[in-house]
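User: I'm curious whether this sequence folds into something compact or stays loose and floppy. Could you predict its structure so I can see for myself?
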Amino acid sequence: MILMMPDLIPFKKLLVYITGVLEILVAPGLLLPQTKDITAILLIVFLIIILPSNIEAARKKVNLRKEDFTGPGLEYLKIRIPIQLFLIAWTYWFGLR
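Assistant: Here's the prediction. I'll summarize afterward.
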């Protein structure tokens, strides 16, 4: 995941750990009626914020399996952006609607 981040972002490894822990801690909030709305909004914002990292990964040809720069490049976005939009819509549908 560090390879996906734009070069100008500091403390990449720390940010990867923080976002991973936050995803785990926030997800159960979707199950509780009193926190469902705010959790859904935060997850949608998070999904939008990380979209540039997916674009950067495609631009750099990041291969997450091999942890190098031999990935598919812009072809990656043909799959990743629709998945990201689906996750945003899904979170909206089940979290806010």
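Summary: The CA atoms of residues 51 and 84 lie 7 Å apart. Residues 23-95 form one domain.
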